[in-house]
Amino acid sequence: MKPDAQALALWPTSASLSAAETDHLVLGFTLLTLLLTVPIFIAITWFAIWFRDGRIAYRTYSDRRNRLLEVSWMLIPFLLTLVFFYWGARMFDTHKHPPGDAIRISAIGKQWMWKFQHPGGQAEIDDLHVPTGQPVVITMISQDVIHALYLPALRIQMETLPDRYTQLWFKADRPGIYRLYCSEYCGTDHSVMGGYLTIMQPADYQKWLGQSATSGSLVAQGRAAFSAHGCLGCHVAGSVVRAPSLAGLFGSPVPLAAGGTILADDGYIRDKILDPDRNLIAGYRQLMPVFKGTIDEGEMMALVSYIKSLGGRSPDQSGATP
Ligand SMILES: [Cu+2]
After folding, report:
1. Is residue 317 part of a domain?
2. pLDDT tens-digit readout, 266-292
3. pTM confidence score
4. Which of 122, 151, 185, 253 is deepest in the core (most CB within 10 A)?
5. Burial degree of 279 (CB within 10 A; 0-12, 13-18, 19+)
6. Please, which residues have CB less than 5 A from ligand 1, an ion?
7. What CATH number should be reported for the domain holding residue 251?
8. Ligand 1 mean position, distance from CA 114 (Å)
9. How many degrees, rounded to 5, is the angle at CA 150 between CA 194 and CA 99?
10. Residue 21 shares a structural domain with residue 135
């Protein structure tokens, strides 16, 4: 089916195992809901007709009770719905925990387009190319208002927020061209904020990457931004300013001046660069300039990738005392 015809299909093609599982969950839960409610609606209708005004029927109140019956018709449906709760919660948990070996793609939503960037630096607008058989993580942020990236063929969507990174991941298994959308009303041109998701065989994906223009890998772009913004002046071994080493920072706990620690994830690093006066670090004098307004989200994604790529946390390299 052509991708645009698919947009009208009642039940879009599913392009991953987890999309198929989502369908089973939704169908199963719909069936259970029907099973539990349709008999009640039939009984209500039947009783309403049987005991209608003026009809001669047996209306004497009976005080016969069957506790077992009463408990069972509450308990059995409850347990049956719990099965779906458990199933849904397990899928939710899987969606929250991408595997470590995933391809990391960054996405920026803005009025009214999507910009995607691959680890090699290949950028695309309103188009997203991914391989089959490999997990793909998309880390995203909005440059303005709230958007949401919706990939119906994979049955997933995620809000894209200003000032905070969000994530989704999937492992596609059916090559093809599918639609992608913004599913959060975001202004005048919301309806045209979308494009195509192209799922390709891994070899075709590699070929596509090779043919696409890139101005250096994301990490290399980040390294360039790191020196262009003068970060290197402080965050380098032997600098005059005593600044923490960024090597191995990603994923480690940072001790805070106010006590406690904070996990150095993408969001922490971004916040610290834009507004270093937040989350003051124990043992340092805060001398870092505020970069809010000077670094856009695209450059920030590159900077964060670069800082992530600095392996092996080592003790303070800057050495010099203030
Ligand atoms: Cu939008």
Report:
1. no
2. 899 999 999 888 889 888 888 898 988
3. 0.80
4. 151
5. middle
6. 147, 182, 186, 193
7. 1.10.760.10
8. 8
9. 125
10. yes
